[in-house]
Structure of Phosphoribosyltransferase:
Amino acid sequence: MFRDRLDAARQLASRLDYLKRQHPLVLAIPRGAVPMGAELARLLDGQLDVVLVRKLRAPWQPELAIGAVDETGWTWVPEEPGGLALPPSYLQEETRRQLATIRERRRRYTPIRAPVDPAGRVVVVVDDGLATGATMVAALHALRQRQPAPARIICAVPVASREALALVTPMADEVVCLLSPADFSAVGQFYRDFDQVEDDEVERILRG
């Protein structure tokens, strides 16, 4: 159990302390992970930025990710997301909706902080937890496709389902996960305080 996202970030920082002299680039997945990313970057003497990805939502349960999309429009969707066959028209429309959100966030965030080039950097991709792992898959894929590439990609999360952990592990050079319990049902169950992070808070953090 974590008190809040900052507590989780501090615990992750203690596991990643060896990165301090490497000036890592900490990429947070908005919005929930941005306060964590800021704290992690501070404690590791690193640099903060965001990686813009969005989950594709199940039509019957919007909190459930059936896939994810990155800023380029690349999507990751299992063959039968959520165990059900969905019509291509739904996935296409949901992808368009989430890309629109990504573009709006880029419009809002970039004037505050220009994107940092990860080429040759040690990059830590942080999220507040992995349920399906979909958005982390999209984030890691986006980094892998960069040329020149990062020197090393580390996935850092406080908690993850075992299925999500297995999914993302092959995509990173290192995975740091503090908890992977058998009774996982939702990320929020492992935080005492798991309030939603809003765009205004993200913008305030990016301003420094």
